[in-house]
Amino acid sequence: MLAVLAFYVRTAGVALLGAAGLHALLGRRWKRLGVLTAIVLLTALPWFWWTSRRPPETGGYLEQVSIENRLDPTSDPLAPGSYVERIASNIDHYATADFPQMFWPLLRLPAEGAPMRPPPAVRVFSILIGGVLLAIGIVAALRARKVAVWDLYGAATLGILALWAWTGDRFFLTLAPFLYLYILVAADGVSRWFFRSPRPAQAAIAILAAVLAIGALREIPSQWRFTRAWLGGDRWAGYQPFWQDYFEVAEWIGNEAPDAVIVARKPTFAWYFSGGRPSFVYPFHGDPDATWRTIRRPGLSASTRTIVAPRRGSGRKAPRSSMARSGAMHRSIVAAARYSSQTACPWGRSARRLLRFPLRTRRPCV
């Protein structure tokens, strides 16, 4: 049941369901396999069917993974060669960005900007030494015992990460604890083989733990600054500027535009912070006119004003064609609202006017 709950939370949790089933099959534990199959048929399969019948405008996960532009359901299917390119790109990212973080402390808090990659020397060490230890640990673990469920889960998760249309440390974190276990097994084995004692491995692991702990302690002052700001009344302390803009716009819509319908990249966030205003995700068509037709679908006012809250510091007017560029609009929010002719808003009244502005320095409407 825990595996099913993991699948409910994230679709990638299917790796745990598959690992449990394959482990029972390899061990010829037919009763356990039958129970697991029944649980999946009664719980996971109906949920998968229900969600697949109600995909967002950008498509479901399986559709997004199998097309060229994951956010445009009208884009062409991914060619076999493109799958190979994606696998190579994803593995390169995790090997050079996320895997080295297992040996090097974080350099920047998420609220302070984009994460920084470890120094080149750390990346080389991680790939060469860490990679060798990881391979040794996997072989040693499989030779010392039979295949465990978490071995299969690790392999399945690695396959999903290689094929997934997104990369990021939040995905890698589902795999990192198991990689540490393999590395610990390898370090112990290598130490006993070279030095006839586990003490060198224990000393090396203690040093690594101390480096990671010191790196974590370095973040305490910055984190305390965000905590003090939050305790002092700053609700958005710790969020990156464009997320602060996003939440502020959503709240403004909830307070000042009672008839608004919100079109947003993250509609559930907009729905929550606006106090329950109707929200939906805008489609990422290559044709901007198709996007505007969707925004003006029945139920929205014909005299729609759009307000976009992009990343901080982008105080430039964007051409309408930018609506088709998912990268520029990834964390944006559009307020499609009914306004009276007397509304006091400094922006133009044209429904086709798309204005991008830094909310940290200027409010949308006063």
Jot down its keywords.
14 helices, 366 residues, globular, 4-stranded mixed β-sheet, mainly alpha
Please give a structural write-up:
The chain has 366 residues and is mainly α. It contains 14 helices and 4 strands. The chain has a 4-stranded mixed beta sheet, with helices on one face.
How are the SSEs ordered, and which strands pair?
Layout: H1 2-9, H2 14-26, H3 30-52, H4 61-65, H5 80-98, H6 120-144, H7 149-163, H8 169-172, H9 176-195, H10 199-218, H11 220-231, H12 241-256, E1 261-264, H13 267-273, E2 279-280, H14 288-295, E3 304-305, E4 333-338
Helix pairs in contact: 1-2, 2-3, 2-7, 6-9, 9-10, 12-13
What percentage of amino acids are in beta strands? under 5%
The rounded Rg comes to 25 Å
The largest β sheet comes out as: 4 strands, mixed
What structural class results from the helix and strand content? mainly alpha
> What is the strand arrangement across the widest sheet?
2-1-4-3
Tell me the overall shape: globular
Number of strands: 4
Instruction: Please report the number of helical segments.
Output: 14
Order of helices and strands: HHHHHHHHHHHHEHEHEE
Give the integer mean of the pLDDT values.
75
Indicate the low-confidence ranges by residue numbers. Answer: 301-366
DSSP helix fraction = 40-55%
What is the terminal-to-terminal distance? 51 Å
